[in-house]
Each structure stands twice: as C-alpha cells, then as structure tokens.
Amino acid sequence: MRTTQWPSLKQMDIIECPKLQIFTRQCPVSQVGISNQQPLFCVNEDGTFPVLEELTLNTNDMTSATLPYSFIRSLPKLQKLVINNASISEIVWSEGLSKEERHTSVFYQLKDLRLSQLPELTLKTFKPSLLSFKNLTTLEVSRCHGFINLIACSTAKCLTLLERLSIDDCEMIEEIIACEAEEIQGGMVFPKLKYLQLSCLPCLASFSLAHHSLEFPVLLMVMVTKFPQMRNFCQGDLSTPRLEQMHLTRDEEGELQWEGDLNTTIKHMLDEMNGQNSEVTEVTDQLPKLE
Predict the structure, then answer these.
(1) Is the pLDDT of residue 203 over 60?
(2) 11-211+228-236: which CATH number, 3.40.50, 3.30.450, 3.80.10, 1.10.10?
(3) Please, are residues 222 and 196 in contact by the beta-carbon 8 Å criterion?
(4) Of 15, 100, 145, 235, which is most buried, counting CB atoms within 10 Å of its CB?
C-alpha cells in the first residue's frame, strides 16, 4: 500500500501476468473497502520511474494495459515501449483529462514503439496531441486487426526521424497513411526512413490513397509481401533515389521482377495477373459444354 520510487530503474518487463492490474491512478489511503486485487504500481505521484528507458508489457490480455496519463507523464526518459497481446482500445488512458492535458504531448524521448496483438486498437489512438512521435526512429505494428488506416497525415508529418517502419498481419488495413484533402498540399517526405516492410495485409490498396507526392530520399530496403488488393504504391509522384534492395512478392509463387520503381513494378504485376486470368477465361470458354 506504500508509494514506491525506483530512481535507478532503466528497464522493466512485465510478462504473462493476465490477472494483474498493473497500474492505478490513485493509491488508496486506507484499508477500508480495498479489494483483494491490488495494483502493481500506484501512479498518483510523479517521479516514480525518473530514468526508465524501456517498458515492455506482454501480459496475455491483462486487466489493464492502457497507460494512465498520470503514469506516462512521469516517464521523461522512456525511449522504447512494447505492448503485446492485450484488449485495449487506446494506449494512453485519456478518460477524465482536462482540456489542457488532452493537448499536451507525452513520451518526448520515445524512439521505439512496437505494438502487437492489439485487436481493439484503432487509428484514433495515434493522436499527436497525446503521443509525441517527433523522436520516433522505429515503428512496428503487427496483428492489430482494428486498423483500417494506420496513421493520420498530421501524425505522419511528425515522423521526420523515422528509420524503420514495419506493418505485418493486419487484416483490415487499406492504407498506411490517411490524408484529408486539406492536408495533402506539398506532399510528404520521410527524410530518414531506410527500411520499409509491408507484409500479410490482405486489404491493403496503397501506401496512401490520397493524390500527393511521397519522397523517401534515403530508403534502402523495401519488403512488400502478400498484398492481393494492392493496385499501386501511391497515387501521386514517388521518389526513392537510393533504393538498392527490393523484395516484392504477391503470394507464394515467388518474387516479382523489379521494374525500376515501386509503382511500375506493382502495375506490371497486375498486368501479368490480368493476362493470366484472361487466358484462363479463354480456355474455359473453348471447353465443350456438358449436357
């Protein structure tokens, strides 16, 4: 029941504790009316983890994986956050926040964000007003089937330091970046992105469906696999001047031939598919009908 402080702790992993309520926003002041299940940490005091740099929550559908605002506000040094296998609809617990708090970003030092098996997590959770992505270098999302779009255009424009982007096995994603008409002026640049992976995305139609240019000035490696609905990489102009490696597969049939740029390669793949479908149709039409 005592408030604790961890002034030297830099890494904390909470693994496979499904019945554990990890965080609460207030510590009870008396024993009256207290349930048998007590939280692991009380977060009504700032400075509990003043130097914590890495936090991993892999707790098999734990009672509470959503991070209370009062807790994350006291993590000024957090650089890596991993959340896996939990039924949460938002990363930051925003309920009850004041108007000022809702417009105050947190995780200023966050560089590495990895989210996996969070089926209820949706686009609305990636709000720049709460989560600061300005220092993010790695973003990995896998088995998060609640997404239709991954991030909003306004959030994507904050990813100026992003070096690695990996999206895997998200059944409903149709595009990675969603932009409104008023947001697409001037195009979009990912100045530091070197590695891009898009795999097992059965509904993916395009990296972005909006008509704006995309620039990846230092992109070196792209891996795109199993994208049956993808029609092109983007709708507007695409610039990848340093792209050196390309791994692109439609399905288990093998790699596709690189045609010089992503849009042309994907279009060539579609032309081949349409040609094969036409041949199958012609052969079928020539078969004698059975009486």
Answers:
(1) yes
(2) 3.80.10
(3) yes
(4) 235
